[in-house]
Design goal:
Elements: H1 2-31, E1 37-40, E2 46-51, E3 62-66, E4 71-74, E5 79-82, E6 87-91, E7 97-107, E8 110-112, H2 114-123, H3 125-145, H4 149-162, E9 166-171, E10 175-180, E11 184-189, H5 193-210, H6 222-250, H7 258-270, H8 275-294, H9 302-331, H10 335-343, H11 348-376, H12 382-385, H13 401-405, H14 411-414, H15 422-426, H16 430-455
Antiparallel strand pairs: 1-2, 1-5, 2-3, 3-4, 6-7, 6-11, 7-8, 7-9, 9-10
Helix pairs in contact: 1-16, 3-4, 6-9, 6-11, 7-9, 8-9, 9-11, 10-11, 11-16
Length: 458
């Protein structure tokens, strides 16, 4: 019997982990792009390009990303030779470009070459980007305060000076192209064999997680990760905490009445209601009363209102789950312990705080984490209350429409509506798979945290 239980447990664990494993494998596959190749034709013309996702057709036509960042279809080429001495540069104002590193111009008449140029290209973009973002933030703050002259001058001087720091990339067919280092978001070197490919894949994944989106290379998921985490935490505060307080309030009753039994039955039934139903209810409420309610949470700001309303929707959705598991944790406290404490003269609140809560605090923590896992895995209701920008603009609603659609990003919604340039689709939508992987991993981590919290030794 023990062997059967263990085998069943391993099978169930494999079924749970299988979707996450598939997402991780596909994400790694898409992040590890192929090595750039030099395509040569019979007349001697050659082009440096990177093969995109998709098979080569019978007429030897292949879809590629050219060295100048243009997606094109090449046909009639004679041979394609891999070129590992190539750098791929991701920009924030244009699609990524390819080429051999010819040098880095740091000042008029001063150009770094060889290893010094490679070191400069690897180390300079991040500090310059951080400095620019800091100056932009200072300029915006000064503009809101009505005194933006000095901050704007500092930003203008910074951009004027560092626009002359240029990375020189050369490639056949495109010649030598200069890329301002301050506009570079991420660089990749294709040398190093399989270890270099692994390092390049990990580096690109980290870049996609820590950076925000832009109109050039597409950027990454930082804004979506922050917004998704905020929505889940709001769900825990607006739905999970009240559910725990209600369960604790009912915990001091030695003989639960009909109202308690009805609440437990209702919470178990509501736990199975699909998330899109709650999304529709909250969207209808937002459409009818959204203007007055959102004024309390930021006036006409669609970002604040959208995030708050999404958190409230997920809080309502996850509250029954939290309440049911919290009541189950309280039920595991022996009733005899409460009866003995009462017989010794302890008051209701003393029994609650010194007997019941210490015995079930791990279960209550697990119930709260389980509610967060339920909230984190829901995407459908968020498409109705703020996560999918532009989805509801054609509904014909009045003033609540901007707050309904919102303009905050959510990891799950991004897999449905990708706000990225076309080069992201040509690369196989790696950010969509990465976003879904983060959602799945986060939900599993929260649920396992809940189980570990309930089963942890005291």
């Amino acid at each position: 019997m023990t062997v059967v239980r263990r085998l069943t447990g391993w099978i169930l664990l494999g079924m749970i982990l299988l979707p996450v494993v598939v997402l991780v494998v596909w994400t790694l596959r898409l992040s590890a792009s192929s090595v750039p190749e030099r395509f040569t034709w019979a007349d001697g013309e050659s082009v440096l390009a990177l093969r995109l996702v998709g098979p080569t057709k019978e007429d030897r036509s292949v879809r590629v990303l050219r060295s100048d960042g243009v997606v094109d279809t090449l046909s009639g080429w004679g041979q394609a030779v891999p070129d590992t001495a190539v750098w791929m540069v991701w920009r924030d104002d244009a699609p990524p470009v390819l080429g051999r590193l010819a040098g880095v111009v740091v000042a008029p008449g001063d150009t770094l070459r060889g290893k010094e140029a490679a070191t400069a290209l690897s180390e300079m973009p991040d500090p310059l980007s951080e400095d620019e973002r800091r100056l932009v933030s200072l300029a915006r703050g000064a503009s809101q305060a009505g005194d933006s002259t000095e901050a704007a001058d500092r930003l203008r001087l910074f951009r004027s000076h560092h626009s002359r720091v240029v990375a020189l990339l050369e490639s056949p067919g495109a010649g030598e192209v200069g890329v301002p280092v301050v506009r570079i978001r991420h660089v990749e070197e294709f040398a190093g064999g399989w270890t270099g490919a692994l390092s390049r894949s990990i580096s690109r994944l980290w870049f996609q997680i820590r950076s925000s989106s832009d109109l050039g290379s597409g950027g990454g998921l930082r804004s979506a990760v922050v917004a998704s985490s905020l929505v889940v935490m709001l769900a825990g505060l607006l739905g999970g905490i009240p559910a725990l307080l209600l369960a604790v309030y009912l915990a001091d009753q030695l003989e639960p009445g009909p109202a308690v039994r009805w609440l437990r039955w209702a919470s178990e039934g509501l736990s199975g209601v699909p998330g899109v139903v709650w999304g529709g209810v909250c969207a209808a409420l937002l459409a009818s009363q959204g203007s007055s309610l959102l004024a309390v949470f930021g006036g006409s700001s669609t970002v604040v209102g959208g995030v708050f309303w999404a958190g409230l929707t997920l809080g309502i959705l996850s509250a029954p789950v939290t309440f049911s598991r919290a009541m189950d944790a309280i039920d595991r406290v022996p009733r005899s312990s409460r009866e003995i404490a009462r017989s010794c003269g302890a008051s209701r609140y003393q029994v609650l705080f010194y007997v019941v809560l210490p015995a079930c605090k791990r279960g209550l923590r697990g119930a709260w984490l389980s509610g967060l896992a339920r909230a984190g895995g829901e995407t459908a209701p968020l498409l109705l209350v703020g996560a999918a920008g532009g989805l509801g603009t054609s509904w014909g609603l009045s003033s609540p429409v901007p707050a309904l659609t919102g303009d905050f990003l959510h990891l799950g919604a991004m897999a449905y509506l990708l706000p990225w340039p076309t080069v992201e689709a040509d690369l196989g939508h790696p950010l969509a798979f990465l976003a879904l992987t983060l959602v799945a991993a986060g939900c599993l981590a929260l649920e396992w945290g809940a189980l570990w919290s309930e089963d942890a030794p005291r």
